Every structure is written in C-alpha cells, then in structure tokens.
Amino acid sequence: MRILAIGDPEGKIRYNEVKLLAERYLKEGDYIIFLGDYFSSPYTEYFRYLKGIAFPERSIFKDLNKKYKIILVYGNKDVKSSVFNLDKKKKDYNIFSIEDYFGELEIDNFKFVFINGSNLVNFTGRIGAKISREIDNLKKKYNKVRLVDLPSEAHEYLEKKYGTFYRIFVKYTYATSFSFLENYKNKKYDFLLTHTPPFLEGAELISGEYPDIAIYKEDGFGGIQPASPRDKDAKRSHVGHKKIREFIENNKVKIIICGHIHEGSGIAIYKNTLVLNPGSKAVYFMKNKVLPYIVLEFDEDLKNIRYIHRDIFNLKEGEINL
Fold first, then answer.
1. For the stretch 19-49, what's the b/e string if a residue is b when 16 or more beta carbons lie within 10 angstroms of its beta carbon?
2. Residue 244 φ/ψ, nearest 5 degrees
C-alpha cells in the first residue's frame, strides 16, 4: 500500500497537481491524505457551507475518490459542517473523515485515529486586528497564553460583542486546547492523523526539517506569525503540542502524519513512532511554486517503510525499519 500525504492546502494547491502526483506514485485503492486548513480563512468554508456544499475543497480532490481513498483531516481554519447539519449529508464513496475533535476509523484493517484542529486561532482583517488586541488584554488579565484557554466568561463577552465574526473563527472551527486527550490511554493505533504535530524536542531527524519546527515572530498582539529565516526578529523552535506528545506516550502509535507547521516539511522518529509532516506549498508560494509532499510505501505489519520526501529544496528517498 502507498500513501500520498499533502500538507495544508490554504487555497494554494490545485487538483491537477494532486492528480499528477497520484498518477505517478499510486495504484488504485491507495490513499491520499489532506491535513486540514483547506482555505486561508474560515470565511470561505463558512459561505460554502451556507450554500450546502458538504466538503471544504472539491477543487482539490473532486473525482480522485473514484480511484483512490481520500482521507480528510480538519485544521484550525476549517469550519465544522455539523453547524449546518451537513455532517448528516450522504458522503461520497471512498472519502473518509472524522467530523469531531477526535475519532477512530478502521480502513483496510488499519486502525486510524484522528485529532482535528489546533489551539491557534487566526483572525484576519480590520475587525480581526481589533479583536486580537482585545484578546491580548484578556490573556494578560487571566494569565493565559492562548485564546482557547480563556475562561467561559471571556468567551461569552467576546461572542456578545463580535457576534457571528467571533463564532466563525472560534465556535464554528476546530479550535481546541486538546484537554480531551487525557482520557485516552493504553490504546494501539497504526496511524495517527493530526493537523497539529506533537512536540518533538529530542526526536531523531530522518529527512528535511523537524515536523514541528516553526520560524516565527511575535505579531504585537501576544501571538506569533510565520516569518522568513532572514528576518532579524525571527525565532526558530519546536512548537508542537505537548498534549499530543503525551497522547503518543500514553498509547502505542506506529505512524503519525501531521501538518499545521508549513515550513516543518520533514520526517523524524520520536521513540518508536514515525512522524511525518509534508509541509505546505503556502509558506513558499510567492517564491517557489513547488508542492511539498510525502509518499509512504508499507507492508501490512508497518515494519518496513519506504519513503519519498519532496520539500521545496530536494527530493529524497529512503527506507525505515520500525
């Protein structure tokens, strides 16, 4: 079996790119995995859902499901279709997703677990800048780092003041603190599909960059934004989530495929778990139109893994024995 994994589309990835890669590497019945954040803003999905469109980005994967299994992960910029009761709409054959923060599926005798969303909320536009400043003050008041960690009274205040705008970016999306992961222990999974990578400090690097390494700078509102490596104020560090790392320490997971960190295109091993992030075309879109991806070829027991890793600089191939 083979998997073609493609990172956050962010509206930058096109159907023909994916189709060409699938024809090059896959056979009928193989998998294509998309890792969430199908558009750069929840607004786009919100208005599509208002029109009754059940899936976030048909222009990317439209009829690929006729030949391949399409697996969708949902990111922090993706709107829950359940808000519009679209989760009850008949799903297309060969398209698999979990439309909740967490869930399990068995496909071809492999056990998949999904962790959707992120603790990061990105507001855009003039209203977004205004609400970001107000959130920054609330975080200082309550001594919190992330919006999702603010108490309920703070969220109620923001929703009352900003109405639908606030709901689209926070209540309707997969914004989460991942506290629910503490309830899952001593389980076994073949694949963990997660938009947000685990914290990977101390992992062994196999190819490219660590899957949770971000290059960023502070945005002036108490948050962080992607930055160029040439920016004098840029910082570089592991930004994966520690609760997801705890999840893989409390459970047995063979392979993790993640996204979210656009520049973190790479493969690493944390203890006995293989972690992969294809990276995103979005982060380098203005300078380099290469679409990063990872192809995995594996046997039924997931012990002998062959990979093809395309970041924006190189194409690498190799083998890993788990």
1. bebbeebbeeebbbbbbbbbbbbbbbbbebb
2. -75, -35
Spell out the residues 6+ positions from residue 183 whose beta carbon is closer than 8 angstroms to its own. Answer: none
Q: Structure tokens of 255?
A: 């392979």
- The encoded tokens of residue 157 equal 């205040």
Report the alpha-carbon distance of residue 210 to residue 199 in Å, rounded.
10
CA 94/CA 55 separation, integer angstroms: 13
Distances (CA, A) of 54 to 33, 41, 50, 99, 304: 18, 17, 10, 11, 37
What backbone phi and psi angles, to 5 degrees, belong to 99?
-95, 55
CA dihedral 275, 12, 310, 66 (to 10 degrees): 80
Asked if 18 and 32 count as a contact pair (C-beta separation under 8 A), the reply is: yes
Report how far residue 127's alpha carbon sits from residue 40's, in angstroms, rounded to the nearest whole number: 16
Closest CA to 221 of 155, 131, 161: 131
- Rounded to the nearest angstrom, the gap between the alpha carbon of residue 177 and the centroid of all alpha carbons in its chain is 15
In sequence order, which residues have a C-beta less than 8 Å from that of residue 251 and are 6 or more positions away? Answer: 184, 185, 186, 187, 188, 189
The answer to whether 34 and 114 have CB atoms below 8 angstroms apart is no
**pTM score above 0.90:** yes
Q: How confident is the model at residue 283 (pLDDT cuts 50, 70, 90)?
A: confident
Q: Do β-strands 252-258 and 266-270 pair in parallel, antiparallel, or remain unpaired? A: unpaired
Name residue 34's beta-bridge partners.
6, 72
pLDDT in tens, 154-205: 999 999 999 999 999 999 999 999 999 999 999 999 999 999 999 999 999 9
Neighbouring C-beta atoms of residue 54, cutoff 10 Å? 18
224 exposure class (CB count in 10 Å sphere: 0-12, 13-18, 19+): middle
pLDDT tens-place string over residues 42-82: 999 999 999 988 888 888 998 999 999 999 999 999 999 99
